[in-house]
Amino acid sequence: MLDPIPPPSSALLAITKPWADKLSLPTLPHHIHEVLFALVLYQGTQSVLSPLLSKAFFPKIYPNLNRRTRINWDVHVVSMVQSCLINTLALWVMFTDEERGQMGRSVIGRVYGYTGASGLIQGLACGYFLWDLVVSTRYIKIFGLGIWAHAVTAFFVFSFGFRPFANYYGPPFILYELSSPFLNIHWFCDKVNMTGSKLQWYNGMVLLVTFFCCRLVWGTYQSASVYYDVWQVMQMDLTAVLHQGSDIPVTSKNAANLFGVRGGELCLGDARCVAAQSEVMRFVDEKSHVPLWIVVAYLVSNLTLNALNWYWFGKMIDTVRKRFTEKPVDKNENENEKRARERRASKSIVEDAADTLDHEVMSGPVTPGVELTEKAAMRMSSGRDGGAVVNKRRRDI
After folding, report:
1. Where is the segment annotated Disordered (predicted)?
2. Is 0.85 surpassed by the pTM of this model?
């Protein structure tokens, strides 16, 4: 399927092409406007749209947030917009891009194939992860090294798609983000005084299920599939494939024969159909072998992303495990400690696990100063007031 977005201007193409050629990213000039659009969209959402809408809809909450929490709030708004947009587009491409479906029938197609629609996903994803990289670098003390590493690796993984490399896997990898809307909802519930509400509880259930299914099960399977396909391609003689037709012949010259049938029907002179089929192997020739360093960098980046997901899931499991292995009640505990223990006991395991995931994935580690402030507040206050002070401070993280 062709890119549904009109191509960039000739001036932008002329500026981008020399740099793209030097970096061996031949499809980047065709999607640079989408990268820039995404970058501007998400920066504008963080700097302008989020503050305006947040002040309008939450006039008693947003203006009173401290600087750290306000930055976090705006970043969560961007994450919400991005995850809903990119997930919808990725699913649409996976279900409607027939040329991409034909690419999936061959290992050469899955590794070297290209469609404009998949390139659109690559462009929007790169624009977002470029924004994410800038923000996580600028506010690294807030979000931590884990979020920064996630931004770096995700940006590189999706940038390689412009070679094109593993373009077929772009939309499936985007589905990692299916859990992000629910993670953001959980975070916002805490900030708008809906902690412990039914909405947060049910949302937490969906969050844990989607995180496990999309990031761990689906993500690990897709990563293993990429590793297997890349290994197979590295064993092939691409020149022989091109000229002898083993696996699939992939030159643009015989693209009409290769992709003359789409969905069981001939193009019958449909120019867009012919163009869509012809671009699948447009960028493949005898020089298309991906260098070993690209393969290593891609696989290491992918392993880093998966390791972070498994690490975050492990933190959730650890949180649940602690609920069943709490220390015996100390008969000498003071009133504040007793109330804190009762609050922990009243919180469901679902909310506990979702809190841990939200804390690890989106907010970064709480600084020791914040922890000490909470403990001091607990010592200086008593009864409901003490709990209210601590809960307020936690909502402000």
Report:
1. 328-348
2. no
